[in-house]
Amino acid sequence: MTDTDQLATRTERRRLDDLEETPHAHVFDGEPRTVRLELAAGEGVPAHRHPERTIVCHVLKGTLEIRLGDEEYVLEAGELLKFDGRQEIAPEARTDATALLVLAPRADD
């Protein structure tokens, strides 16, 4: 098997629309963790941390408020936010919202 063949066997393709039945769906197995998060207006996720991760949040639809510690970020569809998972995070939807989150292993400082 060639290097190109080996890379092709690890390539995965998904449609986010196919995951609509699961509001907090893991898009792919393995690393980096990739999650499709869907929240109804006013719905949120309790404050939590991902200390071993760097996180990128891409809002696909709606408006999402993300509290990181004492700071608040309001993201509209098309906006991205990258942050250290050691911070306490509490996302809440201001409108019906869908986001794609990539939780990559954090590089050692």
TrEMBL record:
Record InterPro entries: Cupin_2, RmlC-like_jellyroll, RmlC_Cupin_sf
Gene3D superfamilies: Jelly Rolls
Biased composition (Basic and acidic residues): 10-29
UniProt protein name: Cupin 2 conserved barrel domain protein
First and last residue of the signal peptide: none
Domain of life: Archaea
Source organism: Haloterrigena turkmenica (strain ATCC 51198 / DSM 5511 / JCM 9101 / NCIMB 13204 / VKM B-1734 / 4k) (Halococcus turkmenicus)
Region annotation Disordered: where it falls in the sequence: 1-29
Residues of the Cupin type-2 domain: 37-102
